[in-house]
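Technical note accompanying the year-one report. For the benefit of new consortium partners, we illustrate the data format agreed upon in the data management plan: each record pairs a sequence with a structure-token string. No post-processing was applied to the example shown here.
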Amino acid sequence: MMAGCCGCEVEVRLLQARQRRVLAWVLAINAAAFAGMVAAALHAGSSALLSGALDNLGDALTYALSLAVVGASLRAKAWVAMFKAALILGAAAAVCGSIAWRLLVDPAVPLFGTMGWAGGLNLAANLLCLWLLRPYRDGDVNLASAYECARNDIADGVAVLAAGAAVWWTGAGWPDLLVAALLLAVFLRSAWRVFLAARRALAEAGRAAPRPG
């Protein structure tokens, strides 16, 4: 029985090591993507690109938090997931502000060429992150919420490419704003899903906690 317990402990440690390695990779990918997308968004004047950049920033912070709590208690992971939901809401608020700025202050047509290549590179990076996290999508709340963020990024990347194509086709800036608004809805939905998962995990942790006396 002791050998069995030792074997289980070794297996858990190996799993945690794999989780840390995957999270470190997706953290680095999203940090690099954020820097590139910010530069592209400022150059192109695109709200859709900016939403993608903010999403990458939120994901990088999310993965850093996920990395920090690998092997922690279910309660700790649940509270980190709650914080991730708040980060996603923050990204949604920033996108909302960008849309308002474009509508009220700077209605210029964004550069569709920059939107195209930046969106394509970002989509490739997001697909790589999703592939890396896919084996852990049904794991604990920590890795599941990280996978949720990566899945949102795919919709984000496709939407930015569609926005660039529509701006090129129409010669107008409204497709960029429309896509940014759609991504805002995606962020809000994702924040709600992560919040619900975290709340379930907190309830489960509460039931599993030992009762005093």
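Partners are asked to follow this layout when depositing records. The chain is about 85% helix and 0% strand.
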